[in-house]
């Protein structure tokens, strides 16, 4: 094992929703260091085109590679849906996205073979979840539903609010009518609505959080590539986690501290279009 | 008068909301040609920083200048609030934004001197409306309120919907409690909610639509600079209006035809970060 094992994992998202993935990596792989990049100057990706999301993702990979990372986690469903191939090509490092890990668990756990996916318009439009689920289990029936208002509602902090409940129910009505027994929360913001969704759909539906499944897949990938960090984190390591954004660095801590199990005091600003 | 009088007006916005301004120019200045640019690859600006909005606006001006325009209309409240000085410096052409025209009318029409402004978080944070209103009439009291959910609701087409009404009332409660008699719709998407807002606030409150006032100010500016188009539009001019976007050109017509009085078949794609 070389010092590469002690290198950080690069984690990126269109904005700050991907911190739900970073959180699961922190909880489940406590030895690993993280470099997080959130593209807050160009957020959201969920309403943008494949071509644009690919170009932005390549720029981010070029930035992350300056941070001497050992692997990349695409902590954004839209970027995974549109750009995982571009990221792999650009990175020349092990790469995982959030779609395949969630799809794998959903296929393993569904009883009746009917799986719902809620996600951004771009992710649904890409058909990436249906493709991933069907390649794992060709017999499943997949009902995908774009939920464009959920990210703004989460970003306004309306996690427990009758308006949010009403909007969730409108989106889920069609999905539930199709008799799904498993629902993938296919956008990194949605785990923050997990308890609202649980309350509305009841206990009989299994909710899949790709953030958690991605952290587990990352552990497997690092082991397979013999890249896992074997050194316990030193108590006086000042910065196992570093955060970069392309805009609003001073507002980062506000949202980050709502999600992360650690106190984040700051993020550094990167002019991402220069990469 | 030179052929410069027949040159188009450059109109830009963070996305497609600025088409409400283009619409008023089409209606009120029917001889003028328009080149519209919507920054759909980086929309929205309303949650971004001054520095980023300035940089993006300068790139757009450099693009518009390649189209041989005679003047620029910043059809975006956030870009006006943050970047009008940068745009003037970069353009070296007559420039107007949407804030001053709306502020002027509000000051002229308020009876009790209490003016409400609803806008994006960035526009409100900039204080640009309060500054513009106070410089015109130092005695007015201004109540500004950020309404971040209204743009997503408009973009979902929920113009007449109980959820939208509920959200509007939450935002307006505080504004109305302060006894305003005039309300500026300080975001280019909000005129599309005009009838919903009218229904909720009643007839006693004057609603100011900066899009309309901006078209009137543009007419005055062109006259003052002797730049108005004096030639009636030829019936066989194939393209008095040209539309450019930085992403999703194929989705442009969908939204544009909801707003514009003409049929728009397409927009051309511009890679705006190259400017």
Description:
2 copies of one chain form a homodimer. Helices cover 44% and strands 16% of the residues of chain A. The first copy, chain A, is an alpha/beta fold and 275 residues long. Chain A starts with 8 loop residues before the first strand and ends in a 6-residue tail after the last strand. In chain A, the strands form 2 sheets. A 6-stranded parallel β-sheet of chain A has the order 4-3-1-2-9-10, with helices on both faces. A 4-stranded parallel β-sheet of chain A has the order 6-5-7-8, with helices on both faces. The model of chain A has no long low-confidence stretch (mean pLDDT 95). Chain A folds into 2 domains: 3-97 and 213-274, Rossmann fold; 99-210, Rossmann fold (3-Layer(aba) Sandwich). The first copy, chain A, has helices at 19-28, 50-65, 77-91, 99-109, 121-126, 128-136, 150-155, 162-177, 194-201, 210-224, 252-259; strands at residues 9-13, 34-38, 71-74, 95-97, 114-119, 141-146, 182-185, 206-208, 241-245, 268-269. Chain A binds chain B through residues 40-43, 47-49, 51-52, 148-149, 152-153, 155-156, 163, 166-167, 246-248, 273, and chain B through 40-43, 47-49, 51-52, 148-149, 152-153, 155-156, 163, 166-167, 246-248, 273.
């Amino acid at each position: 094992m070389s010092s590469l094992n002690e290198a950080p994992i690069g984690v990126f998202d269109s904005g700050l929703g991907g911190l739900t993935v970073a959180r699961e990596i922190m909880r489940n792989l406590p030895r690993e260091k993280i470099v997080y990049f959130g593209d807050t100057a160009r957020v959201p990706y969920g309403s943008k085109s494949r071509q644009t999301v690919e170009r932005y993702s390549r720029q981010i990979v070029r930035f992350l590679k300056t941070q001497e990372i050992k692997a990349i986690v695409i902590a954004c469903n839209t970027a995974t849906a549109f750009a995982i191939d571009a990221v792999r090509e650009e990175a020349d490092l092990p790469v995982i996205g959030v779609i395949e890990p969630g799809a794998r668990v959903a296929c393993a756990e569904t009883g009746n073979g009917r799986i719902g996916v809620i996600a951004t318009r771009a992710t649904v439009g890409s058909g990436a979840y249906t493709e991933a689920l069907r390649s794992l289990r060709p017999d499943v029936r997949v009902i995908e539903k774009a939920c464009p208002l959920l990210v703004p509602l989460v970003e306004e902090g309306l996690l427990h609010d009758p308006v949010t409940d009403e909007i969730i129910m409108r989106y889920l009505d069609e999905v539930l009518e199709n008799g799904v027994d498993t629902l993938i929360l296919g956008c990194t913001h949605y785990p923050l609505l997990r308890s609202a969704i649980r309350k509305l759909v009841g206990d009989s539906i299994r909710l899949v959080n790709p953030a958690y499944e991605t952290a587990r897949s990352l552990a497997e990938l690092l082991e397979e590539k013999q890249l896992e960090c074997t050194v316990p984190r030193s108590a006086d390591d000042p910065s196992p986690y570093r955060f970069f954004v392309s805009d609003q660095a001073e507002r980062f801590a506000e949202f980050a501290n709502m999600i992360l199990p650690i106190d984040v005091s700051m993020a550094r600003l990167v002019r991402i279009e220069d990469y």
